[in-house]
Amino acid sequence: MGDVKKVVLAYSGGLDTSVILKWLQEAYGCEVVTFTADLGQGEELEPARRKAEMLGIKPENIYIEDLREDFVRDYVFPMFRANALYEGLYLLGTSIARPLISRRQIEIARETGADAVAHGATGKGNDQVRFELAYYALNPDIRVIAPWREWDLNSRTKLIDFAEKHQIPIAKDKRGEAPFSVDANLLHISAEGKVLEDPWEEPQEYVYSRSVSPEEAPDQPTYIEIEFETGDPVAIDGQRLSPAALLTELNRLGGANGIGRLDLVENRFVGMKSRGVYETPGGTVLLAAHRGIEQLTLDRGAAHLKDEVMPRYAELIYNGFWYSPEREMLQALIDRSQEHVNGTVRLKLYKGSATVVGRKSPDSLYSLAHVTFEEDAVYDQRDAEGFIKLNALRLRLLKRGQEHG
Amino acid sequence: MGDVKKVVLAYSGGLDTSVILKWLQEAYGCEVVTFTADLGQGEELEPARRKAEMLGIKPENIYIEDLREDFVRDYVFPMFRANALYEGLYLLGTSIARPLISRRQIEIARETGADAVAHGATGKGNDQVRFELAYYALNPDIRVIAPWREWDLNSRTKLIDFAEKHQIPIAKDKRGEAPFSVDANLLHISAEGKVLEDPWEEPQEYVYSRSVSPEEAPDQPTYIEIEFETGDPVAIDGQRLSPAALLTELNRLGGANGIGRLDLVENRFVGMKSRGVYETPGGTVLLAAHRGIEQLTLDRGAAHLKDEVMPRYAELIYNGFWYSPEREMLQALIDRSQEHVNGTVRLKLYKGSATVVGRKSPDSLYSLAHVTFEEDAVYDQRDAEGFIKLNALRLRLLKRGQEHG
Amino acid sequence: MGDVKKVVLAYSGGLDTSVILKWLQEAYGCEVVTFTADLGQGEELEPARRKAEMLGIKPENIYIEDLREDFVRDYVFPMFRANALYEGLYLLGTSIARPLISRRQIEIARETGADAVAHGATGKGNDQVRFELAYYALNPDIRVIAPWREWDLNSRTKLIDFAEKHQIPIAKDKRGEAPFSVDANLLHISAEGKVLEDPWEEPQEYVYSRSVSPEEAPDQPTYIEIEFETGDPVAIDGQRLSPAALLTELNRLGGANGIGRLDLVENRFVGMKSRGVYETPGGTVLLAAHRGIEQLTLDRGAAHLKDEVMPRYAELIYNGFWYSPEREMLQALIDRSQEHVNGTVRLKLYKGSATVVGRKSPDSLYSLAHVTFEEDAVYDQRDAEGFIKLNALRLRLLKRGQEHG
Amino acid sequence: MGDVKKVVLAYSGGLDTSVILKWLQEAYGCEVVTFTADLGQGEELEPARRKAEMLGIKPENIYIEDLREDFVRDYVFPMFRANALYEGLYLLGTSIARPLISRRQIEIARETGADAVAHGATGKGNDQVRFELAYYALNPDIRVIAPWREWDLNSRTKLIDFAEKHQIPIAKDKRGEAPFSVDANLLHISAEGKVLEDPWEEPQEYVYSRSVSPEEAPDQPTYIEIEFETGDPVAIDGQRLSPAALLTELNRLGGANGIGRLDLVENRFVGMKSRGVYETPGGTVLLAAHRGIEQLTLDRGAAHLKDEVMPRYAELIYNGFWYSPEREMLQALIDRSQEHVNGTVRLKLYKGSATVVGRKSPDSLYSLAHVTFEEDAVYDQRDAEGFIKLNALRLRLLKRGQEHG
Fold it and tell me: What quaternary structure, including any partners, is listed in this protein's UniProt entry (chains A, B, C, D) (predicted)?
């Protein structure tokens, strides 16, 4: 298995990564550094510390960090500037969290002199790719350990056996197979696998945990106003909030109104289709609002160019290429467009829908003088004739060429 | 004004195009052929015939046609194969109707020996461009008359005066200014202008006519199944329907559930921003369903390529370039992808949302064998290591180059 | 090594693939079918037959085919319709040959009941990817054997030892290391490795074999005319030629004039940069000529759309995705544009350059009446004012918004 | 004609703009400010001053400026970072000069309190669009005068008559029609019209003025080395040069070797095709060199993204949208990629060709260790199997779906 001295493990404190922790110690005979991050998944972190200690990790090797503000400010918001949607629908909630976790693992490896990093993603999914591309991009010489691709604990029974053998505590509800697997952070919560595997079957209500169903949402709409500065949201209903606090509040508002559920069959980077069920209440509201403020403040040329590169940008993030030159180049393009994306959007939240019903901006490019049907000084309707004629010229020459050719 | 002998006018039977009809006779001293098409706007056509006769049009010069099936089959469905959205949100309901009207006008001009065509679009909007680009593309030598850009009837008062002077009947509710202007066909109904001009103000309920508000929609969801063949919908809940009948039924279902409303500030081709309010109940359901069946049946490479060219394709339609080589080239690309887009999608319609909750297909590319977490024969998890390592190679070399460079 | 019964080997008759042949028999204990294709590489095929027989291949298992016409007609010409260049410069001479060889291997496997295919490409290059992606795309259940990735004959010495041990004849000049490795077909000949590995060193003259150096080319230019029909060349100087005959003649003409040499550092799909030296005399002439005839016959919208998708199309071919839906979709787009690409191009060939100096076409869209500086009836210069004003409108509104905002 | 008080005219000192100068004074009764810029067109500027004075322009209204460094540094070099080619071939020599002239005109208008600007471009070409889009983008309220679209001096005879009537000196060779029209600056010289209007006829040698013909170029190649820093050339053969001095030297070297001639039929923005003959000796060398250094220093993802957006970027410049948000966004993307584009390229210049024959860089991403055929530690050939298998997975599932579907 090679000579690994110290490995930084992305550690959740759950059963799987606890098994990995123990397996790393055994299989590699190496020191393990655990890294547990609060990205808003909604779990206490201190139990992870106690569990790590219990599994023999030295206190100085236990890293527990609240990264919620970093996550939203440096990853979520830049991505939302692009109105990124993977395959037209998916808000990339899992994808966007991986680069931050990876970056911290690599930084901690440097700080602790570790020569390897490890993660708990399986060999069939996208997350292994996202983790590892980020690791390699940030430290080309790092050693990467992906236990799920290496070990033989490839069934629930073997995993439980290993845990019992090594005195790893097993929560009662973890003994059997979970009915589906979950990933959560401040942007979204996802569910996939097992009971969700038949794409013809509607997901049952118990799959959802961050939103009420539209049917259970209030019968009265909720109106909110979101304020933007240079493309990022900064306030809700006049109250300035930090990035993480703002997204938390949008999650609350969206979730209470049944907003942000998505049942999707998507194409994984590793080549297969999979079915995922996502809840992204705050993100769904934010996307609608951001498009709303851009409608008023973004020039057409800028807006259309953004729309054209967006699928590529989203694909890069989905595939794990956050730390690639091409993602950074597209980000430079996108950020360049957001300078004047300032103003306020009013939204109506109601039983599953987030609808923009108003927008205003000091940088508005909407000109009532130009758009009114009245005669006016700013726009000479006769200009349209020349505009159309020259736009049509090539088409006319083409038709003539084809007729006489 | 030049020597026009006969002009084919796109004639709705309403006040504005009746004034145009009379004005053409006067200003150009020419014979007028009226063309009135049923594209599903929901109005009787026979009154238009009577009105044209009353205004002195010879019976053989009155063309009244039901083009609903042509419209949906040859324009709407091809466009939906592309999942086309202009500026991320607009389903192009007005844009897609213009090419068909234009084509018939040019054909009727050929049949009747007319040397000109005329339309009732104003000099500030997109429709003049769409009509005229289509005219010129189909007949490069046609004479185009756009009365709104030529005459001096540029206020409501002057228009009414002209109508009265020429015994053009004026409906009572047309005397005053309309609170907004409307365009309708089987795909959508749009409203813009006047009371809608302030983008900060929420449109009032009376603006909408094709859908109930989400609040007024039933408290129980409606479930439907849509069947697709080679990318086009062919049946609802097992009942095969013609294209127009199918879209009509989707409008009914969507409208009854408050689906398809859009309040948008968009960028016109002529360079200004405008605010439009759209209702596209059936189209909104159809887009969701089409994406649903593509999720299951479209290869990733095909799907992503489609997504990347979509904004360009939508822009071409919005700008009026339906009859351009580049639109046709993109259509060839899109149609090539739809060969296996067959199957059934189940949707939940509820208070403004159309949600895909199931999809199945004989051509499904979703492989449960590949996606399951169990150990399996079809997918060797160790392949992922090589996949990741070679995808990472350039990033590692880059990082090294930058570190040592 | 698994249970392979019969394997179809892409067999050149050279030392490497002869060693592979023997190794397959030994390592897999399986029957070997050899497939040797004439793609215009300029070598006799009959020696390959004799060698295969000598190595124990049954006569009915020896496939030798002249595929030059298939190659040029079905692969080279379609690619040239796109003006494909990888990384701005490379005419994809090697890339485009692999899909045809792979297709025939899969077909022969079906005919002979073979359950596997094998190729002689190494584990670091693009060709392994191209071969295998094509194999899998055409037969998802085929077994693929890539000896260079499996065996331990990973040095010249071991390879020669194996050959000697198995009585494989070794040409004298194959004993030592070749100074560079070569791939050839009717489109190009490439050289890479060893003496070419330092990208700062100019390739020496002996590397080139299909063209004279520009310095040695004639001091007088050669003028030729190439005729096109629907985007493909069909005649040179008035003489109709089959696709392969035409490309052969262009190679002769281009090579004699020092045309088509390229010294390139390129990005491989497997993640590293490599240096290649290419000779593509006929292809270089053909690209210039095709662009020349498109200049006259292709509409601007079509031409620009083609240019925008070309890099993606070229990348797909380079990476081995010829048999992918997205390549086929792009091909449909490209082919749709070529309907009227008819006419004749005159070129000057001189000491390394192929220059278009004239083009004419019955489908020309070039209109002298429109382009002349004289006053004319077909173009009203005043139209330009409206055209410019409406194109400028959004930029003016933007500037105003930024100034007052 | 409206009330213009003061107009800034782009004044060359030639006959046409002298006539315009006089016509502006007459037709508009306004004060004229002349702006004459040295962009490297190769003409003395002082005669323009004297001529302006003679035509009654006040000394303080005569602006004569050497903008060569600004031109190359702020316009030419940024464009070359993109490897921009319009329609695959044209280096945009005229297009890139217009934004600088326009910007200075607008600045001078502000300084002098002028309310209008004027240019001498005709109503059929691209330059009117480029000038005016730039004017409007930089000052949305500026009044634009385009005499060629307004006056009736639309034949040579009328123009000469006007000149004689107003005592405008006429050079002998300007009395008759010029055999073609010319535009020149430090990047290129173009010729079009009259004797060049038949695209089947080869341009005669006298059309060219900045390069010898390849036939007349030296029989020995010239080797040069160009050094780059962050994407821009900074030295030739070890000698650091200012941007303008460097391009001047490249023009000398390229022109002496017959490099940079282009005979093109192109698509104008105003909708027609036209034929142009261009000489861009230094630019042609520079493009080859820049691609050469990028080959070594640019990551594949960055390089391919650049190639994909390039046609759009070139189109924007050709069409006159230099001062548009979308051009600036693309520039941000491109510039972001050039940080490590450092190093030296060696080129061979010979009878019309500029060929890269060597490149080296401290930031090279080319790794001999990775590319060598030998067994090595840095690259595990077995990784390729996984890489290929996962890239193939979707294609296999697709084929299976189609076979069993």
Answer: Homotetramer.
Residues B336 and B188 in one domain: yes
D379 contact residues in B (CB cutoff 8 A): 393
User: According to the model, what pLDDT value does residue B26 have?
Assistant: 96
Same domain, D211 and D236: yes
Q: What pLDDT was estimated at residue A154? A: 81
- Name which of D273, D313, D326 to mutate to probe chain A: the one with the most chain A Cβ atoms within 10 A of its Cβ: D326
> Which CATH number do you get for residue D258?
3.90.1260.10
- State whether C52 and C108 are in the same domain: yes
Interface ipTM > 0.85: yes
Nearest to B367 among A272, A357, A400 (CB): A272
| % of chain D surpassing 70 pLDDT | 97
- E strands, D130-212, are 143-145, 181-184, 189-192
Quote the pLDDT of residue A1. Answer: 56
Contact: C137, D398; criterion CB under 8 Å: yes
Q: Is pLDDT at B7 greater than 60 in this prediction? A: yes
Whether residues A187 and A173 share a domain: the answer is: no
The number of folded domains in chain B is 3
Gap from D273 CA to chain C (nearest CA, Å): 5
CB atoms B353 and A352 under 8 Å: yes
Question: Catalytic site residue A16?
Answer: yes
Q: Are residues B376 and B289 part of one domain?
A: no
> D54, D68, D396: which is closest to D248 by C-alpha?
D68
Are residues A335 and A229 part of one domain? Answer: yes
> Is B181 annotated for ligand binding?
yes
Q: Which chains touch B (3 or more CB pairs under 8 A)?
A: A, C, D
Q: Is A152 a catalytic residue?
A: no
Give the C-alpha separation, A274 to A267, whole Å. 6
Alpha-carbon span D169 to D177, nearest angstrom = 16
pLDDT in tens, D162-219: 999 999 989 887 787 788 999 999 999 999 998 999 999 999 999 999 999 999 999 9
- Which of B340, B364, B382 has its CB closest to that of D386? B382
Token readout for D105 is 């005109």
The three state secondary structure string of chain C is CCCCCEEEEECCCCHHHHHHHHHHHHHHCCEEEEEEEECCCCCCCHHHHHHHHHCCCCHHHEEEEECHHHHHHHHHHHHHHCCCCECCCECCCCCCCHHHHHHHHHHHHHHHCCCEEECCCCCCCCHHHHHHHHHHHHCCCCEEECHHHHCCCCCHHHHHHHHHHCCCCCCHHHCCCCCCEEEECCCCEEEECHHHCCCCCCCCHHHCCCCCCHHHCCCCCEEEEEEEECCEEEEECCEECCHHHHHHHHHHHHHHCCCCEEEEEEECCCCCEEEEEEECHHHHHHHHHHHHHHHHHCCHHHHHHHHHHHHHHHHHHHHCCCCCHHHHHHHHHHHHHCCCCCEEEEEEEECCEEEEEEEECCCCCCCHHHHCCCCCCCCCCCHHHHHHHHHHHHHHHHHHHHHHC
**Banded pLDDT at B141 (limits 50, 70, 90):** very high
Residue-wise pLDDT tens digits, A161-203: 999 999 998 988 777 778 899 999 999 999 999 899 999 999 9
Range A197-226 average pLDDT: 97
Show residues of chain A in contact with B397, CB under 8 Å: 140
Q: Which of D264, D348, D388 sits opposite C133 (nearest CB)?
A: D388
DSSP code string of D215-280: GGS-SS-EEEEEEEETTEEEEETTEE--HHHHHHHHHHHHHHTT--EEEEEEE-TTS-EEEEEEE-
My answer on whether D329 and D203 are in the same domain is yes
Range of the domain at A296: 183-360
Record: contact C391-A387, CB cut-off 8 A: yes
